[in-house]
Fold:
Amino acid sequence: CYVNMVKTATLADGEEYIATQAEAYDKFVYTRTFSNSNWQALYLPVNIPVEVLKEQGLKVAYINNFNQYDSDGDEIPDQIKMEVFYINKGTLRANYPYMIKAETTGEKEIIVENVELQPAESKSINTSSISYSYEVTGNYQKIPSTTLIENKLYFMSGGTLKNLSPTSTASLGAERWTLKITPREETPYIMLPNEIKVQVIGENEADGINSISLDDEGKAYNLMGQKVNNKAKGFIIKNGRKVIRM
Structure:
């Protein structure tokens, strides 16, 4: 009698992952409960085909950039948005920060076959503007409130990036990532916002500019997301529509 023993690795969301070396498995099962349909942080130690996620009614996106905005017209940036691009095909990389959302709430099982689990490494991706440096770092261990507060780390909560108040006792679970914003030396001091909104590009597969959530009707923006006056010429986004002014 031949018994086929399937070598399986399981990981529950929030469970600490501590592997120190890569190891091959016949099957990897990651379980996560989605209590809402907001975008959330995702950081896993295995390559995952996007088709596997789509079969579970899951959408994913990658972080592209962070943009500053002047929302009240005083010429001082007072708002930051994280720009992410919807991923429709391909494969997610292991140990790389992504965004994920579920079309319906409930428990989802992400099952990948014939995989190689990677070591538990907190890798980072970095980007910068004239004013700030942005560092996104994945985590496989719980991060206590003291660390989040002392390092002024942002994390995904309720569909936006937030940081904790000095008196909060909340912690961040594993399989997530954090954002640290550092002012550049030549940048004058500007108060960082307590919340950073997410703008998703390509989720609805329109013309590449969608789901941007411009807050105030009637305001105009250029293609870089910067607010311009109503007499500006060229490609302009106003009331969620792209127009050309000559």
Observations:
- The helical segments are 50-55, 145-150.
- The chain has two helices and 19 strands.
- The mean pLDDT is 85.
